[in-house]
Amino acid sequence: MTTERQEDAVSPKSGGIPAVEVRDLSLVFQTADAPVHALSHVDLTIAKGEFVSFIGPSGCGKTTLLRVIADLQQATSGTIQVNGTSPRAARLDRAYGYVFQAPALFPWRTVERNITLPLEIMGLNKTEQKARAKRVLDLVNLSGFARKFPWQLSGGMQQRVSIARALSFDPDLLLMDEPFGALDEIIRDHLNEQLLDLWRRTEKTLVFVTHSIPEAVFLSTRIVVMSPRPGRIIDIIESPLPRERTLDIRETAEFAQIAHRVREGLKAGHSYDDR
Amino acid sequence: MMTASTLLASSGGLIRRAARGTALPVAAILLLALAIWYVGTVFLNASVVTDQYQRDGKTVWTTGELIADTMSMERPVLPAPHQVAAELQKSIFGVKLTSKRNLLYHAWVTFSAAFIGFAFGNLLGIALAIAIVHVKSLERALLPWVIASQTVPTLAIAPMIIVVLGSIGFVGLLPKALISTYLCFFPVTIGMVKGLSSPEPIQLDLMRTYSANEMQMLRYLRLPASLSFLFPSMKVAMALAIVGAIVGELPTGAQAGLGARILAGSYYGQTVQIWSALVAASILSGASVGLIGIGEGWLSRHFGGQA
Lengths: 275, 307
Hints:
The structure holds two protein chains of two kinds.
Chain A: H1 2-10, E1 20-29, E2 36-46, E3 51-55, H2 62-69, E4 77-82, H3 87-92, E5 96-99, H4 111-122, H5 126-139, H6 155-167, E6 173-177, H7 185-202, E7 205-210, H8 213-219, E8 222-227, E9 232-238, H9 253-268
Helix pairs in contact in A: 4-5, 4-6, 5-6, 8-9
Chain B: H1 2-20, H2 23-55, H3 63-70, H4 81-93, H5 103-134, H6 136-149, H7 154-167, H8 173-196, H9 201-209, H10 214-249, H11 258-267, H12 271-302
C-alpha cells in the first residue's frame, strides 16, 4: 500500500528534478539576548505534483521554511534547491506563485488589475493579460467580479482573488502560507475543496502551511509535522487517501488514523511544556 | 417628468443636508466670526473716534452714534466686514478686469507665481522623497537640511533671494515662484517620504516574489500607495505657496500682486485696502486648496475609494 502510494504521489510529473530539495538546512536569528533557532537541520524533498502541508504550532518554523523556499528569507547553513536551482534564481525566474496569510490586494486596483499585476511586471501585452485574468477568475469561480474593487468583496472572495493572482502567470509551484487561516470554517471547507480540485486539474506542486489538522489531512498527499525550539521536522506522513477526495472522506477511519498520527507527532514535539 | 423628479431629488438633498445639520454649523460659525469681527471693529476704533470727537469739541454723543461712526471711518484701525466687502465689490466689479486697479488682476499676478512655485515645489518634494526612500544614507544626509531650511524665517530670506536673483537678471515672476517653491517643497517631501514608505511588508514581499525591480516597485506599489499622503501635503503646500508669493512681493515694492496691494495700503494707511487684499488672499488660498480637494476626490473615486 505504501509503495503504491509513493508512486502515486510522484506520478504526474515524476522522473525529473524535485520541485524542492532541502538538505540539512538551518536558520538562526541573532537577537539581543540569545540566538533563535528558527530552523534546525531540516531535510525534505518535495516531488513535482505533490501536495505537501507543513503543520505545527506557532514558532515551529513552518512559515520560515516556506519563505526560505521563496527566497524571501535566507538560510544560515545547509543547501536548498528549487526546481534544481537556487531559490534566488527560481524567484528571478518567477518559478513559483506565493499566497500570503492576508490577500495583500492593492486597494487602488480592481480585481482584474490586481490579477494582471504580475503580468504587467513581466511585460505581457494587454490582450494576453485580459485573457489570463478571465481564465483564472473562472478557475476560482469569480467571473463577473473583474471590475469590482477589493473592498467590495468578502474576505473569502479576496483570498480567492489572491490565489487567482498567483495562478495568473501559471507557475508550476504554488506556495501557500495559511491562506484560509482568517476565514470561518464553512468557507474554509468550501475553499479547501476548490483548491483540491484546482490542484488535480492543473497538476501543480503545492506547498501549504497550516495549523489545522483536518485541513492538512484533507488536502495533502504528504504531511510534514514540525515542532518549535528549535524549529524542526519531527514526522513526515505519507497519506494513503486517494487523490480524488470529497469532504466526506473526513468521516472515514483512515482519515481519523492520519489525524491521530499528526496529533501524536505534535504532542511528541513537547511544544506546550513551557506555556 | 424626468427633470422634475431630478430637481425634486436635488432640492430634497439640500433639505436633507440642512436637516442632517451640515449646512447649519457652517452658517453658525460664519455668523459667529462676523459677530466677533464687528465687536472688534467697535472696540478697536472707539478710542480713535472719541479722540476725534474731542478735537471737534463734540461732548454729547450716544452709544449708537459712536458705534455707527466706528464702522464708517476712512482709515479705521480695523475696518468693519461690510466696509471690506464694499471695497472688494468696488475693486473687483467697479473697474475693468485688465485695469491695474482691479483686485482680480493682482490676485492673478500672485496666483501665477504661487502656482509655478507650487508645481516646482511638488516636483522637488517628490524627487527628494524618492531619493530619501531609496538611498538609506540620504535620510541622514538630506533630511536635516530639509528641516533646517524651514527654520529660516521666510521674511528674512525672501529679500536676499530677490536681490541675488535680480543681480543675475531674474526679475518679476520667477524669484517669487522660487520663494513659493522654497516654502512648499517641505510638506510634500515629508508627506511623500511617509507615503512612499507606507506599503506593508506583505505587499513588498509580494512584489519581491514577482522579482520586481526598484522602478516597478515604485511605479506599481510605492507611488499609488503614497497618493493618499500626497494630497494633504499638497493642500498645505498650496496655501504656503500663496504666502510665499505674497511675501516675495513685499521687499521689492512690487507694482502688482496682492502683496503689492498690502504694501501700498500700509504706506498710505489704507487699512480697508489692506484688509480687502488679505480677504482676497484667503479666498484665493481657499479656492486653490478646494480645487486640490476636488482633484483628490476624483482620483479617489477612480481608484477604488469607498466614497
